[in-house]
TrEMBL record:
Protein's name in the database: NADPH:quinone reductase-like Zn-dependent oxidoreductase
Domain of life: Bacteria
The organism of origin for this protein: Pseudonocardia hierapolitana
GO molecular function ontology, one term from the record: oxidoreductase activity
SUPFAM superfamilies: GroES-like, NAD(P)-binding Rossmann-fold domains
Amino acid sequence: MRAAVVGTPDAAPVYADFPDPEQRPGREPLRLVGAGLHHVVRGLASGRHYGSNGAYPLVPGVDAVARTEDGRLVYTGLPRPPWGTMAERLVTPFEVELPAGADPLAVAAGMNPGMSGWMPLIARREEVGALGTVLVLGATGMSGSLAVRAALALGAHRVIAAGRDPEALERLRGLGAVTVPLAHAEPAAWAAALGAALAEAPPPLVLDFVWGRVAEAAFAALGGGGVDESADIDYVQIGSLAGTDAALPAALLRSRRIRVTGSGTGSVSKAQMIAEIPDVLARFADGTFDAPYTAYPLSRIGEAWAHQGRTRAVVVPD
């Protein structure tokens, strides 16, 4: 079959022949409709993601919308390495049929980033029954913006969206979020802006899609005098676009009732994620979730790999 193929950790994928995926008992082969080029896809292909196994060559891609032999559109993923989803044919362990009204390429672009925020929101709601105030760091990226939408849809009392892109922040403000701009400032200014936003009500839940210096600014804000010291705070680390390391002050851990955890492959089971897929797909069908995308034929995988901007690259068959 034809596929996107990565030969070495630092190489961009090329359009080439690759062996058909191994069959699984009871699983029919699927045909690609669209596969999103997410941050995790690049990380796994380069060997920099914690889930990389270091084996090459490989086909990149972690999820996709595909078509069954009887013509149904399904969302699927978790192929067995070295096979990924950016190939003509897929063999995967699960499939969930798309609801009517869902744009298949928007699903391909947005399900992976959408699930990253959805899972800790659902876990928090199941644990305590209500979301209260939710702070989203990195809210202007696709994952963060979908997390803001998810928090609002799941009944959060107040959603604080912090990010760099002023246009994206304005759109989130229009949905009802309180916005905190983090562009053109230093971490001390970020901490002050976050502290002012948190003074009204401390966030029981923080979703951090960026980590690095932004996390350090958030730690400073959460440890400041304006935040209720008796509040329980769950700080969930999800992405690291601003840096893989952040200094966590000992004083914050001792002076606040704060729990710092992570959410991702390994900390959330595959069964839990698959169970939530129908509800997330329904949000794409009813318009709650939106994921702008740019489609690239599989034969132009090099252009897709170099894609930048507000839309997500989605690889489609030729």
